[in-house]
Amino acid sequence: MLELRYRGGDPGPGPGLSPPREGNAAGGDHETESTSDKETDIDDRYGDLDSRADSDVPEIPLSSDQTPEILQKALSGLSSRWKNWWIRGILTLTMISLFFLIIYMGSFMLMLLVLGIQVKCFHEIITIGYRVYHSYDLPWFRTLSWYFLLCVNYFFYGETVADYFATFVQREEQLQFLIRYHRFISFALYLAGFCMFVLSLVKKHYRLQFYMFAWTHVTLLITVTQSHLVIQNLFEGMIWFLVPISSVICNDITAYLFGFFFGRTPLIKLSPKKTWEGFIGGFFSTVVFGFMAAYMLSKYQYFVCPIEYRSDVNSFVTECEPADLFQLHSYSLPSFLKAVLRRETVSLYPFQIHSIALSTFASLIGPFGGFFASGFKRAFKIKDFANTIPGHGGIMDRFDCQYLMATFVHVYITSFIRGPNPSKVLQQLLVLQPDQQLSIYRTLKMHLIEKGILQPTLKV
Amino acid sequence: MTELRQRTAREPDAPTEDKELESEAKVDGETASDSESRADLVAPPAPVDDTPEVLNRALSNLSSRWKNWWVRGILTLAMIAFFFIIIYLGPMVLMMIVMCVQIKCFHEIITIGYNVYHSYDLPWFRTLSWYFLLCVNYFFYGETVTDYFFTLVQREEPLRILSKYHRFISFTLYLTGFCMFVLSLVKKHYRLQFYMFGWTHVTLLIVVTQSHLVIHNLFEGMIWFIVPISCVICNDIMAYMFGFFFGRTPLIKLSPKKTWEGFIGGFFATVVFGLLLSYVMSGYRCFVCPVEYNNDTNSFTVDCEPSDLFRLQEYNIPGVIHSVIGWKTVRMYPFQIHSIALSTFASLIGPFGGFFASGFKRAFKIKDFANTIPGHGGIMDRFDCQYLMATFVNVYIASFIRGPNPSKLIQQFLTLRPDQQLHIFNTLKSHLMDKGILTPAAEDE
């Protein structure tokens, strides 16, 4: 709001909208209604803002320093540079311990955590949009943004719940109805929001409103779809959630350390602090880290088994016979490694080979998510997404590299590990018409007998 | 475009602005004034009157107002005739037309974005927008092809690999585009580039998803494609006519020409039109049957036993109407009842798509999306009300008419592991036995 007052009060070099000019222009303006001059061109004011180069755009003021009092007192003796470094370090350790704690508490808490992070990321990005367009006062808009978030979440969670809680859902009548017509209900809810948006268009703010509408949708596309893919990966087995996320975090930390100690050649103009040495060093250490983390986690059923909802205990259980992927196999080493390690074979989990692919993606392509966020911050002249975490910025700042990782893991699982979700196939089967079900049953039976999976019943 | 040039030309304090920006020029490498003046030079010329010469000569003696009306009328009839020809030519041509319309709509909206942001000179960006369009289309067409052309795909080895790893390949292609975008960020144009990136993605979301839902509806049966689209067109025309003859009360500030009388008249007229049209079309197999790809003839066929929805049934008329009409029962297709729902949506909610497009045009100060069709504007101008209709029909079919696609389910089933297949098979078996659809005696055959 500071910029708004500054610009309005500045006589000459305002963005070309000083009052005398408006008087002359109103006559020739193609807007036929004669409204007050100041209000006519709110759209123009911000419209011109868009076509200007970045240098012209004012910076968004930062919030005040939010470091908690405790840390301030404890570190009051150190100089400001070291103080900053210590704050970052302490917060990093705090976040990592919080992560371990939540893993210990179980999958349900993890899902809640993912949901909480998603809502906070959405809030941060939307707040930036408000500040960029000074659109706090737009009628309805904050309500509509949160409403759309609710709709899209309802749609996605409904699809997930229907898949994974099939037995639970079959019991309750109302839930059956909701599941059966789920798409229609979600679409109706979305439509209601869309119609409210159209009805809320106010004459002088069309462009702003359309911008915020688009901003909301792109943000939903980014944050909500990613968070749901994360939850789908989680249901495959907690290891599919833990290993990718820790690879990205490890890549962040080791690239920083390598860059700190050995960094010379800058990597990309967008982020001047990144160096090639950090990038390559981070790549190798992340692959090694992923390899070892996969080895340690593959032993425990808790991490490896798909999460199932048991209706009798009314909770999530992770108990199963570990898949082939998580059982030790002996691999014969290629000859040059044989000479180095002096062993013939090595026993590995097949999952460790997959973890190499995951770590490679995390180190090579993950940083592009970070560059994207850096470019975004420079485009809109903000230093951090928010000030939630002292020393680190907002939640989005921590999660920007994770952005592409969740989608990659999901696509990787569906392409290379296993096909579609069996419970979803079952649920769709149960929804079909009886005659379709019967014909499918016959086809399946023939197929299974052919493959020898089902023994043909003997006639008596 | 004339508006844009007027706006930039009308700034008398431009000299002062330039001076201030030039002082900043010493700090930055390139000034905003540079990009502004360059933009003025390269801004596209105002669109000239596109009416073909033929029409111009034929209508040269009429006054300009009637001429406009005649041009619109002739073009409307030409488009409707074109529509009928395409329907006659068959599903394959229809799919190609849908694809062309999609590409043209994308082109129109992206061009508006370029004009708004004066971003013709942004490095790479036009290439990247079209590349993203290609990626998203590849993803969606791949999914459709995998569903409907299953047997064809299984035969050809390269197609089989492409379809098995389809999601991974699409994701890789998209990622390449994303990385190219990040690498193409240029220091002074970050904001513009992010805007165009966002603009491209929202346009893809609108245009490409809708066109693919249209094709899904088409595969259900051409009647699911023709009836909704004709209802929207009919609503447009009827609302205009009713508004022309009886219009008094304005409907919404966004579109001052729309009136409540037009809205309500259009609603009733569209419902009646939908009932009549579905009655006429439900009689023909070529409209009613799902489009299938025949491997032997390597073409699309529409031949089947019409489902229950398209067989005449007797309905008892409620007492109220019975006294008026004097009939006890009426023979209708069940599909006609569904067509009432479709027409209602087309008349009540469809116009919101039109208001959205009107608001968009006002927000960006353009009169029409483009000048492709003389008298009517661009392709998007004609299709803005269809925007929501395709999604609604698709959701409607999935929720109320039939569930998931059986052949797709079988295909998914075959990719599962054997123990999963067995588990599903046994669950299905017990479910069928519970419902009595499957009897143990029949089972042992």
From TrEMBL, chain A:
<feature type="transmembrane region" description="Helical">
    <location>
        <begin position="237"/>
        <end position="263"/>
    </location>
</feature>
<feature type="compositionally biased region" description="Basic and acidic residues">
    <location>
        <begin position="28"/>
        <end position="55"/>
    </location>
</feature>
<dbReference type="GO" id="GO:0004605">
    <property type="term" value="F:phosphatidate cytidylyltransferase activity"/>
</dbReference>
<feature type="transmembrane region" description="Helical">
    <location>
        <begin position="177"/>
        <end position="199"/>
    </location>
</feature>
<keyword id="KW-1133">Transmembrane helix</keyword>
<feature type="transmembrane region" description="Helical">
    <location>
        <begin position="351"/>
        <end position="373"/>
    </location>
</feature>
<keyword id="KW-1208">Phospholipid metabolism</keyword>
<dbReference type="InterPro" id="IPR016720">
    <property type="entry name" value="PC_Trfase_euk"/>
</dbReference>
<keyword id="KW-0548">Nucleotidyltransferase</keyword>
<keyword id="KW-0594">Phospholipid biosynthesis</keyword>
<comment type="similarity">
    <text>Belongs to the CDS family.</text>
</comment>
<keyword id="KW-0812">Transmembrane</keyword>
<dbReference type="GO" id="GO:0140042">
    <property type="term" value="P:lipid droplet formation"/>
</dbReference>
<feature type="transmembrane region" description="Helical">
    <location>
        <begin position="85"/>
        <end position="117"/>
    </location>
</feature>
<feature type="transmembrane region" description="Helical">
    <location>
        <begin position="211"/>
        <end position="231"/>
    </location>
</feature>
<dbReference type="GO" id="GO:0045600">
    <property type="term" value="P:positive regulation of fat cell differentiation"/>
</dbReference>
<dbReference type="InterPro" id="IPR000374">
    <property type="entry name" value="PC_trans"/>
</dbReference>
<dbReference type="GO" id="GO:0016024">
    <property type="term" value="P:CDP-diacylglycerol biosynthetic process"/>
</dbReference>
<comment type="function">
    <text>Catalyzes the conversion of phosphatidic acid (PA) to CDP-diacylglycerol (CDP-DAG), an essential intermediate in the synthesis of phosphatidylglycerol, cardiolipin and phosphatidylinositol.</text>
</comment>
<keyword id="KW-0444">Lipid biosynthesis</keyword>
<dbReference type="Pfam" id="PF01148">
    <property type="entry name" value="CTP_transf_1"/>
</dbReference>
<keyword id="KW-0443">Lipid metabolism</keyword>
From TrEMBL, chain B:
<feature type="region of interest" description="Disordered">
    <location>
        <begin position="1"/>
        <end position="49"/>
    </location>
</feature>
<comment type="function">
    <text>Catalyzes the conversion of phosphatidic acid (PA) to CDP-diacylglycerol (CDP-DAG), an essential intermediate in the synthesis of phosphatidylglycerol, cardiolipin and phosphatidylinositol.</text>
</comment>
<keyword id="KW-0548">Nucleotidyltransferase</keyword>
<feature type="transmembrane region" description="Helical">
    <location>
        <begin position="69"/>
        <end position="89"/>
    </location>
</feature>
<keyword id="KW-1208">Phospholipid metabolism</keyword>
<dbReference type="Pfam" id="PF01148">
    <property type="entry name" value="CTP_transf_1"/>
</dbReference>
<keyword id="KW-0808">Transferase</keyword>
<dbReference type="InterPro" id="IPR000374">
    <property type="entry name" value="PC_trans"/>
</dbReference>
<feature type="transmembrane region" description="Helical">
    <location>
        <begin position="221"/>
        <end position="247"/>
    </location>
</feature>
<feature type="compositionally biased region" description="Basic and acidic residues">
    <location>
        <begin position="1"/>
        <end position="39"/>
    </location>
</feature>
<feature type="transmembrane region" description="Helical">
    <location>
        <begin position="259"/>
        <end position="281"/>
    </location>
</feature>
<keyword id="KW-0472">Membrane</keyword>
<feature type="transmembrane region" description="Helical">
    <location>
        <begin position="193"/>
        <end position="215"/>
    </location>
</feature>
<feature type="transmembrane region" description="Helical">
    <location>
        <begin position="337"/>
        <end position="357"/>
    </location>
</feature>
<dbReference type="GO" id="GO:0004605">
    <property type="term" value="F:phosphatidate cytidylyltransferase activity"/>
</dbReference>
<keyword id="KW-0812">Transmembrane</keyword>
<keyword id="KW-0594">Phospholipid biosynthesis</keyword>
<keyword id="KW-1133">Transmembrane helix</keyword>
<comment type="pathway">
    <text>Phospholipid metabolism; CDP-diacylglycerol biosynthesis; CDP-diacylglycerol from sn-glycerol 3-phosphate: step 3/3.</text>
</comment>
<feature type="transmembrane region" description="Helical">
    <location>
        <begin position="124"/>
        <end position="141"/>
    </location>
</feature>
<feature type="transmembrane region" description="Helical">
    <location>
        <begin position="95"/>
        <end position="117"/>
    </location>
</feature>
<dbReference type="InterPro" id="IPR016720">
    <property type="entry name" value="PC_Trfase_euk"/>
</dbReference>
